[in-house]
Amino acid sequence: MTAALLVLNCGSSSVKFALFDRALERLFDGQVENIGDGLTPRLKTSAGGDDLPNDLSDHVDVLGHLLVDVVPPRAGRIVGVGHRVVHGGTGFDAPVRIEPTTLEAITALAPFAPAHQPHNLAGIAAVGRTMPKVPQVACFDTAFHRTIPEHRQLMPLPRRFADAGLRRFGFHGLSYQSICTRLPDLLGARASGRIVICHLGNGCSLAGVVDGKSAYTSMGFTPLDGLMMGRRPGRLDPGAVLWLVNHHGGDVGVVDELLNREAGLAGVSGLSPDMRTLMVTDDDRAELAVTMFVDCLVQEIGGAAAAIGGLDALIFTGGIGENAAPIRERTTEALAWMGVRIDRDANRLQRSTISTPMSDPSVHVVATDEEHIIALAVMNLS
């Protein structure tokens, strides 16, 4: 019977899963979308479309179905389970086995990521119910950024707030770790240089990496900061947030919903959070949203390059970064002053290197694989 490693990534409205063998070859994967908010969940797997029972309404229901009816028939014997956990605070800088003490610490961090951590915990609990003897491993999105210098972690506020946990953490760390493992093959000796990685999807961020370690992140205390995203605004004047709270009669919950669900591409365009839709929509609002997205990205790349002392390579990854050639072209054209030169044909064809030989820095498109990083941690710790 094949020994398999299971990876779970429980998001705010989705559950991604993947099975790997001990050689870290992917055996099977899939995703359930549209979980919660009265929506009808949809399951897609590498084996094709699959139907879900009609009574699955939340993460607990979905996870129960996946762990009993979908995954085991394809798994053989599951010998370890790995979870993406969004927030590891200051205490977790590497993957850990999930024991009662670590689970307590992960649970205590839920208020720092209320839209994600409870769902991560739901995945851990579901595995504990269905596979109580199988070891579980937590892999933290914040861990990669623990190497950022303290002066970039702290905010310009009285120190007592940092001591209480208010500091810049950064996210998407598993994606950045995945990219960094592939840079030596792509860049050779320059992989230890100054790299800016742009993770662009529904959530967007970038990292400034030096010698394979995070030195700068666009995201901060929460995933709201930094780049404009599908439904999040990115960087905002704190005064604008205060104005919004006052405008809504002090209802912080309404403003929280606005900033996490109704802003970004969706809010500016009034049409969609999906870059694919906006790029093919003949509407001035769609074009404005795309223009704002690119402008914000260009500014953040410049800021990251300044923070790490220059730029040897620029990497695009994530759903938008890997697939939206027009966004890469518009962004890199605006960075021509930095010496960026793009081969338009290579960019259109999604080549791994899309810059010309005359370009300094070089520019690349690299697919991220967070699940592989988690599976590796499970293999090492279970």
Number of strands: 13
What is the number of helical segments per DSSP (H or I, 4+ residues)?
A: 16
Proportion of beta-strand residues: 15-25%
Low-confidence stretches: none
Query: Percent range for helical residues?
Result: 25-40%
Strand order of the largest sheet: 5-4-3-2-1-6-8-7
Largest sheet: 8 strands, mixed
Helix and strand element order: EEEEEHHEEHHEHHHEEEHHHHHEHHHEH
Radius of gyration: 21 Å
Protein structure class: alpha/beta
Short description:
With 382 residues, the protein is an alpha/beta fold. The chain is built from 16 helices and 13 strands.
Report on this structure.
There is one protein chain. The model has no long low-confidence stretch (mean pLDDT 94). The chain is globular and about 55 Å long. It is of the alpha/beta class and 382 residues long. The strands form two sheets. The protein has an eight-stranded mixed sheet with strand order 5-4-3-2-1-6-8-7, sandwiched between helices. Strands 11-10-9-12-13 form a five-stranded mixed sheet, sandwiched between helices. The two termini are 18 Å apart. It is built from 16 helices and 13 strands.
Q: In terms of topology, how is this protein built?
A:
Layout: E1 3-10, E2 15-21, E3 26-33, E4 42-45, E5 48-50, H1 59-70, H2 72-75, E6 77-85, E7 96-97, H3 100-108, H4 117-130, E8 136-140, H5 150-153, H6 159-163, H7 173-187, E9 194-200, E10 204-210, E11 213-217, H8 238-247, H9 252-261, H10 264-269, H11 275-279, H12 284-308, E12 313-317, H13 318-323, H14 325-333, H15 344-348, E13 362-365, H16 370-381
Parallel strand pairs: 1-6, 6-8, 9-12, 12-13
Antiparallel strand pairs: 1-2, 2-3, 3-4, 4-5, 7-8, 9-10, 10-11
